[in-house]
Design goal:
disordered N terminus, 54% helix, elongated, 323 residues, 5 strands
Length: 323
C-alpha cells in the first residue's frame, strides 16, 4: 500500500554563517584567505559568519566559484534563515496581543470550521488573522472599524463588532467560491419577481439553491450564513470584490423574517450605494425610525412579498378567516 508523505517543514533555520564556518573548516581555510580569494573585505566575511550581514546573490556566486558550493544553496539558505528570523520576530510581537483573542467567539468559529485552535495562543491568533485576511490586530481595526456605524439596532441589543465581523468575513469566504455574471440591476429586478414563489417551496434547501443560482446570473452573490454568538444580525448588503453581496442569517428561525430579510437586502442593493456596508437586525419591534434607506428597503420587501394591489383586494374581501 502506498504511503502519502507530508513534506517536512522545520520551524527553524540554520544560520548561513555556521554553514560557511563548517565549509571553511573542512577546507582548512581561514576567513582571511576566503576574503582574498573572493576579493572581498575581511570585515564582510566576518559579518556573514556572525550573521550580521546577509549573503547577497552576488556573494553567493562568489562563494560558488571559491568553495564549489552552488549559489542556489547559499541563496536558499539565506532566504530560509531570514524568513525564520522574520517569523520569530512577528510571533514575538503577537505574544503581547493574545488577549485580543478573547473578544471573538473562537469556540463557535472552530466548531464551524472557520479556524483551528492552535497549540498556543499565538498559533490561534495567527490563524484568526489569516481568516480575516489581515496582518495584525491593528489592521483588523482599520478594516472593520466601520461596523459601528453600519449596524442599525437598539443599544439594548447591540452586537459584538468582533462576532459580527467574523460573521461578515464568513460570508465573504463563501461568496468567493460563487461564479458571478457581471452585475445587471435590470436583470436583478426581473429575477426578484421570479424569486417570490420560492417562499412557498416545501424544501428550504432547494429554495436557497435556486435563489443563489438566479442571483449569481444577475451578478449578485447570495449566501446564507448561520449566526455566531453575539452577532445578532439578520442580514447585510455590501459590495465585495466588485460585486454586490447579500448575506442573510437564520435569526428568529421563521419563514417570514427570513424572506423579509432577503428582499430587504435586495432593496439595498438596488439602491446602488457602492462601497456602503449595511448590516441590520430586521425585527420590526426594534427597528429605528426615520432612516430613509431603511424605510425604502422595508417598503421594497413588503411590496415584493405582498404586492399592494393583492393586499388591497384581500382587505376589500373582508375575509379574515383562518384560510
Amino acid at each position: 500500500m502506498a504511503t502519502s508523505l507530508t513534506p517536512w517543514t522545520p520551524d527553524w533555520a540554520v544560520p548561513p554563517g555556521e554553514v560557511l564556518a563548517e565549509a571553511l573548516a573542512e577546507r582548512r581555510m581561514t576567513q582571511a584567505e576566503l576574503a582574498r580569494r573572493m576579493g572581498r573585505p575581511l570585515k564582510t566575511i566576518s559579518e556573514i559568519a556572525t550573521g550580521k550581514a546577509a549573503i547577497t546573490p552576488q556573494t553567493a556566486i562568489q562563494l560558488e566559484r571559491t568553495l564549489g558550493i552552488s549559489a542556489h544553496f547559499w541563496n536558499s539558505l539565506e532566504v530560509r534563515f531570514r524568513d525564520a528570523l522574520a517569523r520569530s520576530e512577528a510571533r514575538y510581537e503577537l505574544e503581547s496581543q493574545t488577549a485580543w483573542l478573547k473578544r471573538f467567539p473562537l469556540v463557535a468559529m472552530a466548531s464551524r470550521g472557520l479556524i483551528e485552535q492552535g497549540r498556543t495562543e499565538v498559533d490561534t491568533l495567527e490563524r484568526l488573522l489569516t481568516f480575516f485576511g489581515v496582518s495584525q490586530p491593528s489592521a483588523w481595526e482599520n478594516q472593520w472599524s466601520r461596523l459601528e456605524a453600519a449596524f442599525r439596532s437598539s443599544d439594548a441589543y447591540r452586537p459584538s463588532p468582533y462576532s459580527l465581523s467574523a460573521w461578515l468575513r464568513w460570508g465573504e469566504v463563501l461568496a468567493s467560491d460563487i461564479e458571478l455574471a457581471d452585475y445587471d440591476p435590470s436583470a436583478l429586478r426581473l429575477a426578484i419577481t421570479q424569486l417570490r414563489p420560492l417562499t412557498r417551496l416545501a424544501s428550504f434547501e432547494a429554495a436557497i439553491g435556486r435563489m443563489r443560482r438566479k442571483m449569481a446570473g444577475c451578478g449578485v452573490a447570495f449566501v446564507v450564513v448561520p449566526e455566531l454568538p453575539r452577532s445578532r444580525v439578520s442580514g447585510a448588503a455590501r459590495w465585495f470584490a466588485g460585486s454586490p453581496l447579500i448575506q442573510v442569517s437564520l435569526r428568529y428561525r421563521t419563514d417570514d423574517q427570513f424572506w423579509f430579510s432577503v428582499f430587504h437586502e435586495c432593496g439595498h442593493v438596488l439602491s446602488d450605494v457602492r462601497g456602503a456596508l449595511v448590516v441590520e437586525d430586521i425585527d420590526p419591534s426594534r427597528q429605528l425610525e426615520g432612516e430613509v434607506g431603511e424605510d425604502v428597503a422595508n417598503e421594497f420587501a413588503r411590496d415584493t412579498l405582498i404586492p399592494p394591489e393583492d393586499y388591497r383586494a384581500f382587505i376589500e374581501k373582508q375575509d379574515l378567516s383562518a384560510q
